[in-house]
Amino acid sequence: MIVLNAKKFLYCAIDYKEIEEAERLLCIISHAIGGIKLGLEFFISNGINGVNRLKKFNLPIFLDLKLHDIPNTVSEAINAALIAKPDFISVHINGGTEMLKIISKKEETKIIGVSMLTSLDERDLVSLGINISIPDYVKRLVKLASECDLEGVVCSPNELKMLREIYPKDFVLITPGIRLENSKKNDDQKRISSPGDAIKNGSDILIIGRPITRSKDPLFAIQNIQDDIIKKSKR
Ligand code: C5P
Q1: In this predicted structure, what is the pLDDT of residue 186?
Q2: How is 107-123 classified by DSSP, letter by letter?
Q3: Phi and psi for 151 in degrees, rounded to 5?
Q4: pLDDT of residue 105
Q5: Residue 61: what are its φ and ψ, rounded to 5°?
Q6: CA distances from 183 to 1, 25, 153, 211 (A)
Q7: pLDDT band at residue 185, thresholds of 50, 70 and 90?
Q8: Full-model pTM
Q9: Which residue puts its alpha carbon closest to atom 10 of ligand 1?
Q10: Cβ distance 51 to 86 under 8 Å?
Q11: Does residue 139 carry a pLDDT above 60?
């Protein structure tokens, strides 16, 4: 496999409360990334107007709201968020069948199901009373998402190979938990992989936040990520 355009896979998680900070970073990196991921930190502070303001960077927007509530509330929240016309909105798959069915298939926005957070591991599952393996748990959640017509899921890079064997190419697999092999492993992400391995194993979109946003030189950090993708795609 040869990846000619590594940047299109790369969505930067713009996890800032201050929109000016988000804009400052995007002015530097927008030409080097494939999309913007806006999560709760940004959205709670800046709302729909904030999302609209970042449209000037002309990049696809993944509005990572991780909605999880009763079906009517989630459905209305999505309708409210659709005003900003994001390319993707996320909901938690464990909101259940009824919640997923009521919201799936929107015209301009793909609804993406969050499976098991990349910050959780086997012990967390046990503490939640879930006594099956991570792959089995993720498989079960993703099957539910697919049966309810969601157009893709967020999963850890560790589950990519398994899911790519089951689901067709147009079922979008989005992966956070991306870290370069030589980076220090001292944050909350537990189920991680390198950018190049994630792309090789079938990820459509890499969500990368702190390795870029907390770098002294964000463009250099992006260059290293792209180099890793290109290097591993040639193997
Ligand atoms: O800073 P870091 O690269 O860990 O950022 C990952 C981003 O991906 C965060 O914004 C986080 O909310 C998001 N995310 C995640 N795990 C999921 C879904 C989204 O880490 N399962």
Answers
A1: 66
A2: SS-EEEEE-S-TT--HH
A3: -100, 5
A4: 77
A5: -120, 125
A6: 25, 21, 26, 9
A7: low
A8: 0.94
A9: 13
A10: yes
A11: yes
From ligand 1's centre to the CA of 176, what distance in Å? Answer: 5
User: Ligand 1: distance of its center to the CA of 13 in Å?
Assistant: 7
Ligand 1 centroid – CA 199 distance (Å): 17
Determine the residue of 91, 154, 207 to mutate for testing ligand 1's pocket, defined as the one with the most ligand atoms within 8 A of the Cβ atom: 207
Catalytic residue among 7, 8, 66, 231: 66
Residue 184 pLDDT exceeds 70? no
Q: What percent of the chain has pLDDT over 90?
A: 86
Average pLDDT over residues 55-72: 98
- Whether 138 is in the pocket of ligand 1, judged by its Cβ within 6 Å, is no
Q: Is residue 159 in contact with ligand 1, taking CB distance under 6 Å? A: no
Which pLDDT score, from 0 to 100, does residue 191 have? 82
**Cα 210 from Cα 212, distance rounded (Å):** 5
Q: Which atom of ligand 1 lies at the shortest distance from residue 178's CA?
A: 3
Ligand 1 atom index nearest CA of 156: 21
Does the annotation count 66 as an active-site position?
Answer: yes
CA dist 204 → 135, 170, 173 (Å): 19, 9, 5
Q: How far apart are CA 112 and CA 213, in angstroms?
A: 24
